[in-house]
Structure formats: structure tokens, C-alpha cells
Amino acid sequence: MSRDNVLHVHNILMRVKLILNLKTDAELAKILEIKPTTISAWKRRGNIDLNKIITLCNPMNVSMDWLLYGKGEECIPAANDPTEKIIKMLESMTDEQRRDVLKYVEKEKLWEEVIKRQKLA
């Protein structure tokens, strides 16, 4: 474990707490649904579960360059394209949440077809 890796992990966690307006590792652990000791281990080893961090920060349009390296702007401009917005939201959801969204969209599409048929009748 190099000192640079430990410092890098510490800086990433500081930026995540800054974005989320958190003061402690315990608060961050609660949001990430992990034990505070996991964050301590990340810092000690100089190794971090980036998937958890990115999944948490993606919906907030956090620039990955800023989050990981402290370079550039903190946030990237929000997508104007509705499809891009939907994709970003879906990426941050659990599989169960995605299934619920799919059921909702399918139901809405079905209702749209029923209404269209009634108007033609």
C-alpha cells in the first residue's frame, strides 16, 4: 500500500462528504449502507469500492474527474435529453426498482392503447 493510494482514497471520501454535506465517516457509511469500519479499512488499505461511490454520486451529476482526482468542475451540466436523464436515473436504481419502473411504463402504454381504441370506436 503506497502513501499516495491512502491519500487518494482519503481525498475521494472527503469530496463525497463535501457533495453530500456530511461531516463524518459514520454518516457516509450509513448512506452507503456499509459499516463505518469498512470506510476505515478503505483508508488503511488505500483501496476503495468505487462502484458504491459512483452509484451514489451519479444521480447528482458529479464530475468523475473532480470526484476521483479533484480536477475540473464539481458538477457536470445536467442532461437536457429526457432519454439521457432516464438512463442516468435507471443506472442508479436497484434491479427491483428498475422492474417497478418497467411495470409502470408498460401499464401506462397499455392504458394509452385502450384510450386510443375507445376514441376510434
Q: Can you describe what's shown?
A:
The protein is mostly helical and 121 residues long. The chain folds into two domains: 9-69, Orthogonal Bundle (434 Repressor (Amino-terminal Domain)), CATH 1.10.260; 82-120. 71% of the residues lie in helices and 0% in strands. Residues 26-67 form the HTH cro/C1-type domain. One of its GO terms (molecular function) is DNA binding. It holds the Pfam family Phage_CI_repr.
Average per-residue pLDDT, rounded, comes to 85
Alpha-carbon Rg, integer: 20 Å
Domain count: 2
Helix content: over 70%
Give the biggest sheet: none
Termini separation (Å)? 72 Å
How much of the residues is beta strand, in percent?
under 5%
Q: N-to-C SSE series?
A: HHHHHHH
CATH class of the largest domain: Mainly Alpha
| Helix vs. strand class | mainly alpha
Say what the CATH topology of the largest domain is.
434 Repressor (Amino-terminal Domain)
CATH architectural type of the largest domain: Orthogonal Bundle
- Low-pLDDT residue spans: none
Tally of separate helices? 7
GO molecular function: DNA binding
GO biological process, one term: negative regulation of DNA-templated transcription
Protein name: Bacteriophage CI repressor helix-turn-helix domain-containing protein
InterPro entries: Cro/C1-type_HTH, Lambda_DNA-bd_dom_sf, Phage_CI_N
